Amino acid sequence: MKEIARAGARALVGLALWLAIGQACAGPRNPDYSPPRMVQVLGYNGHMMEPFLTRDGRLLFFNNRNDPSDQTDLHVAQRMDDTSFRYLGPLMGANSAELDGVASLDTRGNFYFVSARDYASTGNTLWAGRFTGAGVVEVHPLVTDFTPKKLLRLNIDLEISADGETLYVAENRWNLLRGVPATSDITMARRDGARFIRLPNADAMMSNINTNKLEFAPATSRDGLTLYFTRLDMKALLKKRPGAFAILRATRPDTSSPWGIPQPVSVVTGHAEGPSVTPDGCGLYFHRKDGEIFHLYFTRDRACAPQ
Question: Considering the entire predicted model, what is its pTM?
Fold first, then answer.
């Protein structure tokens, strides 16, 4: 979560991000989440952020630390169990010399991610391609009607719905003097052929989600009835008060209704961001900063039927 130049663009996006299959658990009841457990990716040593578990539960995408000083790339691992994965390597075809992260994949094999590779010239950070199982091909800029054209405005992360028809994007505006985001809100767009168009009622759909704090990192259940996201109280963060970060959960009765009032996932504490939902809707992955290292964690609704 500067100067509009190649290095400056990457630094801006990197800092923004830093700050930044069923229905069993999609109902309005309050889940009973287990204490989070750290996720191990065998064969990988380093920061892990922005997890995305594929809709079939087989693969985990993540990126290393998205600090402006790092080369941020996308990586992929294969699931062994809820908290154990086997590292398969950098995600072939998706990475560039600039920041690449925040993976998302629909059930049709359409892959979406954030990249700063041409932000300096176009203002675009949203990219897409086709996932073959071994890597990403046909990488291209995502066409939308809301790519920012102004200095210090950018789209910092995204999530594609399981059916590939709805795109959730966090839009961000920066306070240049303080070097932090001034606003961050989540919007919704619908597929229109090869592009995505912002929903005309997006503000109403997200009226219970967006506040004067910073909302980003959307994650949706397979049925589209549960939304997780991160909320950051920037004032609390700058004053080093506890509780600056929170992961929240909202539901709705159907996909045409606005999201309801969100509730915090109380077992998730500390500098925690970037949720991702398991295929059955019962489990949640996220990243958390432990000291100076970002790890992945997993929690599961204990009221759900065992897998």
Answer: 0.89
Residues written for the chain: 307
Is the CB of residue 48 less than 8 Å from the CB of residue 41?
A: yes
Rounded-to-integer distance, Cα 210 and Cα 226, Å: 16
Q: How confident is the model at residue 7 (pLDDT cuts 50, 70, 90)?
A: very low
pLDDT digits (tens, 9 = 90+) for 87-100: 999 999 999 999 99
Tell me if 98 sits within 8 A of 116, measured CB to CB: yes
Inter-CA distances, 294 with 69, 172, 188, 201, Å: 15, 23, 28, 36
pLDDT score, position 1: 47
